[in-house]
Specification:
144 residues, cell wall biogenesis/degradation, globular, single chain, Barwin-like endoglucanases, RlpA-like_sf, mainly beta
Length: 144
């Protein structure tokens, strides 16, 4: 999904696949919970996928959906791979919203926010899945 969309008075223009394949950024991550464990009440993502507490998923404003990213907590060095299948966060200067499980793996669940580096590992699913020609491009470019 790379269609433009409108939220809270602002229009967002998702990047094309080629741009996304070599995209990386540093910014503030938060976590959000679209599901509950007891009763298995589930939320849906922008792609219509069910959200369960054990998923490592994320929301991003401009990456194409779906894609897989590596998120690294710059405060402790922990990393996790997440499937980006939702839009957001739409609060302040946050760059990515993570599932509770991903936030726990990165070690910032209790704090709520962390400074992270995001690196795109692949864009698309199945036969449409594309990877950057040189994995780790963003890390090598900026010395990560």
């Amino acid at each position: 999904m790379t269609r433009s969309y409108h939220v809270r008075g602002q229009t967002y223009h998702p990047m094309d696949v080629e741009t996304a394949l070599y995209h990386g950024e540093v910014g503030t991550a938060s976590w959000y919970n679209e599901s509950r464990w007891f009763g298995l009440v589930r939320g849906n993502t922008s792609l219509g996928e069910k959200v369960m507490p054990w998923h490592n998923i994320a929301a991003h404003k401009t990456l194409p959906l779906p894609c897989v990213v590596k998120v690294t907590n710059l405060e402790n060095g922990r990393s996790v791979k997440c499937r980006v299948n939702d839009r957001g966060p739409f609060i302040g200067d946050r760059v990515i919203d993570l599932s509770p499980r991903a936030a726990k793996k990165l070690g910032f669940y209790d704090q709520g926010l962390a400074t992270v580096e995001i690196e795109v590992l692949s864009v698309g699913d199945g036969p449409y899945r594309r990877k950057p020609k040189k994995p780790g491009f963003f890390s090598r470019l900026f010395g990560g």
